[in-house]
Amino acid sequence: MSYCINCNVEVDSFIEKCPLCQSIIQKSDNIDQIFEEKKYPTEIIEEEKDEPKISDKRKRFVAWEAVSVSAVVPLLIVLGINMFVERSFTITWGKYPLTGIVLAWLLISVPLLLLKRPILIVVGETLSLIAFLVLIDFYDNGAIDWYYQIALPIIGLTALVTSIVVILSIKVKNKGVNIAAFVLFGISAMCLGLDLIILSYIHETITIKWSLYVIIPLTIIGGFLLYLHYRLTRIVDMKRVLEIKKKLKA
């Protein structure tokens, strides 16, 4: 007997063409070899469908939308409780948590919306803190007093130190533990500034006390990290130069 290699049906030996597909019938002497060469998959493999990709910008917007909706819920709860307790539409104690919720929303929203603009992020975060502290100071007695002596210098110090650390981290070519060193130096500068601002406000004189206990160890650790980073970088660069020279000689 013979077989059709397309339909895989058995036909009589005198049949020249398959009655189903009209293909030429292969004789039985080489049919085994033909079937062995023509391999079929043992199982059906489903083709993977390309799922639509969501851009990073869209993901950040969705995250920002979720944060915004999450912020509205506690805002409404605080407003509702305040009005229920006071039996009026006047916001009294609720202004403190409401302002804090708005600040938290701003601090999260600014990086999400301005991810690739670090300078604008620093400016936005700084302005948010300024507005928050001004309002908190105003809520106390209807006037702005301690803000200028404590809050504003601290905000300026924070913005300055943060900007320097961010710019150094972005501009430096070889990134590694040197970024951690920059952060440690920034923390040291912040502690020194806070010590000067707070003690000057309390004692009305320029003094440094507790910040030295933070500055000394952090500065030593930061210096060691810088040495380690640039020492290892130099060794790696030397190895690359030697490898290039060997390849050129070869």
Description:
This protein has 250 residues and is mainly α. Among the domains are: 1-41, no CATH class; 172-250. The chain is built from 7 helices and 2 strands. It has helices at 31-37, 56-86, 95-113, 118-141, 146-171, 177-203, 211-249; strands at 2-3, 10-11. It has a two-stranded antiparallel sheet. A hairpin with a 6-residue loop joins strand 1 (2-3) and strand 2 (10-11). The two termini are 68 Å apart. The model has no long low-confidence stretch (mean pLDDT 80).
Low-confidence stretches: none
Largest sheet: 2 strands, antiparallel
> What percent strand?
under 5%
Number of strands: 2
Helix content estimate:
55-70%
Structural class: mainly alpha
Count of helical segments? 7
Widest sheet: strand ordering:
1-2
Terminal CA distance: 68 Å
Give the overall shape: flat
SSE ordering: EEHHHHHHH
Question: What is the average of the pLDDT values?
Answer: 80
Computed CA radius of gyration, to the nearest angstrom: 36 Å
